[in-house]
Design a protein that fits this description.
- Helix 3 runs parallel beside helix 4.
- The strands form seven sheets. The protein has a seven-stranded mixed sheet with strand order 1-19-20-12-11-7-8, sandwiched between helices.
- The protein is built from six helices and 20 strands.
- Helix content is 22%, strand content 27%.
Amino acid sequence: MVQFQWHSDRQAVLALAQGFTGAIAARDEAIARCPAVEGHCPVCRRPTSFAVGTGAMFGPWPNLREGLRCAHCRLTARQRLVFLAMEQHIDASPVRRGALLEQTTLLYRHAHARWPWLTGSEYLGERRISGRHYWWSARGLRWRRLRHESITRLSYPAGSLDLLVHSDVLEHVYELDLALREGARVLRDGGVMLFTVPFFLDRSTSLLRGRPRADGSIEHIEAPEYHGDGVRRQGIYTFHSLGWDFPDRVRAAGFARLQFGLCHAPDEGLTAADPCGPAPRLGVPLVFRATR
């Protein structure tokens, strides 16, 4: 069974990531050059074929973090990584109430089927009220009723959740520290926030890429960067490129501990994001676990 290796210490994380480089060169580069590879899906728990180039690109090369989609469950590498982190945490802990801050995705569909007590939501804009449901369509074709939650103003009462999960959200939130405090607020003592976020192992301090103006536009400090988004057709702006000051910000927000969970397993479709690119952009498979 695929297992995470969890560390809080910076040097231990860097040493573990460095230890992956041989396997990345031997296995991940070859995967990036194929249209599909055979493997075993740890979510489906059966042999499968992973379609390689199904997401964003790094120039001519596929972003394997957003690719490697399983032919059966259809989850991407990042979604499988989050599902596995949830599964291993829930199996080992007394979790009775949790929230996943997405609702229109295949990840939510599989997670809710496995854990029916899990609530899902989407961020639908500043004019919506957290905890309420709204009819929503990204392209005017398929309307659905979704729960709105803003990560900076969650509707959940203080100390009401055992588990809070989100995936690639924080880099898009200008008020990052407020979002972290909200996560700590809604969790009980000992509760856990599991999440992914693009993290730069070679960056000592985080980079602020832009800031919102009063008129709603964005002042670009760095070249603008947008990520794909299932709710908004135009994509979503990236405010932060996070570095090693991030753990201190998590602890300052009210969490007792932040751990880095690394899980490099090419046969299960869990690889470096950009194995053909420069070392700082490799993007090893990484999940964060913040304990209240």
